[in-house]
Write a structure and sequence with these properties.
Layout lengths: L3 H15 L12 E27 L9 E2 L17 E7 L4 E4 L7 E3 L8 E3 L3 E3 L53 E3 L8 E3 L8 E3 L8 E21 L6 H10 L3 E6 L10 H7 L9 E17 L6 E6 L6 E6 L1 H25 L1
Parallel strand pairs: 2-3
Antiparallel strand pairs: 1-11, 1-13, 3-11, 4-11, 5-10, 6-9, 7-8, 12-13, 13-14, 14-15
Bound molecules: zinc ion (5 copies).
Amino acid sequence: MLNDKDVLEAVRRRLEERGDGMKLGLPDTAKVTWHPLLEGQIVRCIETRTQDERLHYGSIDLSDRPEYDTLSRYRLAPPKNLTKTQKVTLVQRGSVTERSCDDCSNGKKPCPRCQGRGDLPCEASTTCADCRGIDSCLRCEGTGDRIRNAPDGQQPVGEREVCRRCGALDAACPTCRGRGRTTCTTCEGRGIRDCPDCDRAGTVPHQSCKGTGRTVTWTEATISRKPMIEPVKHPKAGVPYPARELARESGKWHALRLTHKDTLPENLADEFRNLAQPYLAPHEGEIGREATFKHLRLARVEVPQHPHRVYYVFPTDTSPQVLVLPSQQRTWQIAAAALGALLVLFLLLRLVS
Ligand SMILES: [Zn+2]
Ligand SMILES: [Zn+2]
Ligand SMILES: [Zn+2]
Ligand SMILES: [Zn+2]
Ligand SMILES: [Zn+2]
């Protein structure tokens, strides 16, 4: 692990390379601040167990479902892969009850419309649609007795036929031929028709048992397992983006991989231990956990002789790497200079106009 001396030595070398290192009284005057960086993720498997009463209409085969006695004590193999979702459906032992419906016969009830007969009465004939039964025959008016005289050479209105009732020529309505009524098309004159509610069966499905005639009830349990992934990034703020990115890219991090059975290693520095420990608290319903951490100490160096710069130093596989960034003060100066230039330009423009 890098210490203050290594860091200052790295900065000094960097300044030497630039040709202005000799002027510095390193390390006495420089200020080193350490940022512990911790990154990674916590993957948890969260399990929930619920129990419900189930009702099924008709027969159902539950024999292939695993059985349990007390849900909380049911043992399910620990998850092999924490990121996979899993759902197991169980049946409580002895809870399956099959009943036949008391209110129907095998799921059927007599049709209320036809009272179980399957058919309905129907008028065998209906009033003639053409003559409406009023002038079915000009001579007998549908009675069969010629109660009127034949019209004297006068042609009747529209086509007329021989009356089936009284036999008069050119006297009867061509549709009903003097009868005044026509055969019902629904029952074709039979006087009964099929019941449309039960389609002639005389029975309809029993609503309460959905026509099945039996119900099955049981107690069902569901065990579901879902992954929960929590990213880890410390500190949330306070380290400039370029420094963090470069450290992420080429820094030498220490990796840690812990399951829910492991604790943080004894030799882990307190600054990382304090950051990582809160992540390892078990979550409600947690049955498995894998924490993947990597950590690195990033040094921030301020040198009074160079107030415009800040140095970030971190370990790599070879020698420590140094990143030079403008200081906060410098950033403000640049911003102020830019504003000043704008102001001058503004005043000049005012003078000219
Ligand atoms: Zn029923
Ligand atoms: Zn019916
Ligand atoms: Zn007639
Ligand atoms: Zn008619
Ligand atoms: Zn009819």
